[in-house]
Write a structure and sequence with these properties.
The longest helix is centred in the C-terminal third of the chain and has 32 residues, at about 545-575. The protein is built from 21 helices and 14 strands. It is globular. The protein is an alpha+beta fold. Strands 1, 2, 3, 4, 5, 6 and 7 form a seven-stranded antiparallel beta sheet that branches. Strands 8-12-13 form a three-stranded antiparallel beta sheet.
Length: about 575
């Protein structure tokens, strides 16, 4: 079997596979003129245009790996495909994969296909004899930002050619978000470079692709050597140590931005080839030709020779980009978003206790051991989610205990669906819900033991509504800050629209009691017509005026506090 294949040989084999409806039934390699439509080629793979069979004629791309015995291990291939497929499903900044196939192809002569068969997931041992092991990935067709043609380099879109810093920051932010997503899933990409960055003109998005040598890690560390020279971190190349962590991706990402800002040249290089000095102990590259001082400072820290001198997480890098794009406010808010989580959780638990005392005094909450266990598992799952720990076993335990509770308490389909949802998601909300249920139960036990009168606490209903509504606001703020969307950064927090809207809501609530009083004085009550008399009376029972007054006051104090702390931090950063 040949180790070197010409493009003509490879295309002749692929055309024959095409005629056998391989590798994909719904898509075929498209031929424009002579041969197939080649979109790009690399050291170990070619990418061809593909078209959907039938009337739709949707265009895609097929990546072909394996000619010249350059296929990767089947297990690693399937893992990298599944990881990229899963990551691309929820984010618009990772190249989307539709399908993948592995084939064994027997050849006679130079390129005549005799036989071809798919390799299954649980396949038998490889047959004897010579055959091609080819791997195919069907993915969205999308253009790389760097196109190379006879030693000439072209950047897409045009704004990158002119080194428009806003556009470079947009690329950096969207690709940084993709890398951050991968890191949160315990994945080190290990091949971040301009060739693996793609641009989608329709949505104006930048996407990260080619997770072919990505590595999943349980402890955040990897040891196998895999890199592209010039982009690989010194510790990966082997200059510093045998093991490396997520900061290796930060180095590669920073070097990619450096090359982009330096006229597509590596440090102290005259072209797109790395200089040998780059991996000399303690090397400090000169500043790139383009870029503001602030952006250059961030990039230089990302490509520090010693991994301890770099940013230690992609969250830190993205926070710095936040400051450049949106100012100190959003950077401060993201760095301190856990304050919202902690305070929101405290308010939710306190609100649950007050709610039980003031709204539901007569409800019996005498939990069994199994119910305590279920709530405790929900809390444990949320804690693990916050600390980015694996939650599979806890989810299985939640499902098991939940099934037992369903059996003893009476089966209902909606309960089963809710149980499945709780067991398969690591949402923080369910931990707070479990904690609130336990707090309400403890409150009930205290009320029973102390023989407290149920009527004593009705006047505190406003406090329960206030605490629970503020808990919802704080937790929603935490969730929004966890999302890296332009609208959230630019509108909700830079302009403080989120807190302004919440303040307006509470101010309207503060006027509700008076507006209801005016409405009910009229012959036809608007509130009663919209809400019903019973609901109007229920709203009046928890004194919405106090809820609105204290809620608006909390929001104003929160904004003043935040402004003051951001001002202090900004002054401190200027002095440094």
């Amino acid at each position: 079997m040949m180790n070197y294949w010409t493009n003509e040989d490879m295309e002749a084999i692929l055309v024959q596979l095409n005629k056998q409806n391989l590798p994909f039934k719904k898509y075929a390699f498209s031929a424009l003129g002579e041969g197939l439509s080649l979109l790009g080629s690399g050291a170990s793979a070619n990418v061809y245009e593909a078209v959907m069979k039938g009337k739709k004629r949707e265009v895609a791309a097929i990546k072909v790996i394996g000619f010249g015995n350059r296929h990767v291990d089947s297990e690693d291939f399937r893992h990298s495909v599944e990881v990229q497929k899963e990551l691309g499903r929820y984010k618009n900044n990772i190249v989307e994969i539709h399908d993948s196939v592995e084939l064994r192809v027997w050849i006679e002569g130079e390129h005549d296909v005799v036989k071809a068969e798919k390799i299954g997931f649980f396949d038998e041992p490889e047959p004897e004899g010579h055959f091609l092991h080819l791997q195919f990935i069907l993915m969205e067709k999308i253009s790389p930002v760097l196109c190379t043609n006879k030693f000439k380099h072209k950047l897409i879109p045009d704004k990158l050619k002119t080194y428009d810093e806003k556009e470079i920051l947009k690329l950096a932010y969207e690709i940084g978000t993709a890398i951050n997503r991968a890191h949160k899933n315990n994945l080190i990409h290990r091949d971040i470079k301009l060739e693996n960055i793609f641009y989608e003109p329709r949505g104006g998005h930048y996407k990260l692709g080619d997770f072919g040598i990505a590595r999943t890690t349980d402890d955040g560390m990897a040891s196998t050597v895999a890199f592209t020279k010039g982009y690989g971190a010194p510790e990966v190349v082997g200059t510093l140590e045998d093991r490396y962590d997520y900061t290796a991706d930060i180095y590669s990402f920073g070097m990619m931005l450096y090359v982009l800002l330096n006229d597509i040249r590596f440090p102290e290089s005259e072209n797109y080839h790395p200089n040998v000095h780059q991996y000399v102990q303690g090397y400090i590259p000169p500043d790139p030709i383009n870029g503001s001082d602030e952006l250059v400072h961030i990039v230089q820290k990302m490509i520090s020779f010693d991994p301890d001198d770099r940013y230690q997480s992609m969250e830190e890098v993205l926070n710095e980009f936040d400051k450049l794009q949106y100012g100190h406010r959003i950077k401060y808010q993201r760095e301190h978003k856990n304050t919202l989580l902690v305070l929101g959780t405290v308010f939710a638990l306190m609100g649950a206790a007050v709610w039980k005392l003031s709204f539901m005094q007569g409800l019996k909450l005498d939990f069994s051991l199994w119910e305590y266990l279920f709530c405790g598992l929900c809390i444990g799952r949320s804690v693990c989610t916050i600390h980015k720990k694996k939650t599979g076993l806890i989810g299985l335990a939640i499902f098991g205990v939940g099934i037992y509770l369903l059996i003893v308490s009476g089966f209902l389909w909606w309960r089963l669906l809710l149980l499945i949802f709780i067991a398969t998601t690591g949402d923080i909300f369910y931990g707070i819900l479990g904690g609130s249920a336990m707090i309400a139960n403890v409150t009930y036990l205290i009320m029973s033991a102390a023989s407290l009168s149920e009527s004593e606490f009705s006047e505190y209903r406003w406090m329960a509504v206030l605490l629970l509504s503020l808990a919802g606001v704080l937790l929603e703020g935490h969730a929004l800050l966890g999302e890296r969307a332009e609208k959230i950064g630019k509108v909700y927090f830079r302009k403080n629209l989120f807190w302004i809207l919440v303040t307006v809501f509470y101010m309207v609530l503060a006027l509700t009691e008076k507006s209801i009083a005016i409405s009910t004085a009229a012959p036809v009550s608007i509130h009663q017509r919209l809400l019903g008399t019973e609901n109007v009376n229920w709203i009046l029972s928890w004194n919405p005026e106090l809820v609105g007054f204290f809620g608006a006051g909390f929001c104003v104090i929160w904004m003043i506090r935040e402004w003051f702390l951001v001002f202090i931090e900004k002054r401190a950063s200027i002095k440094v």
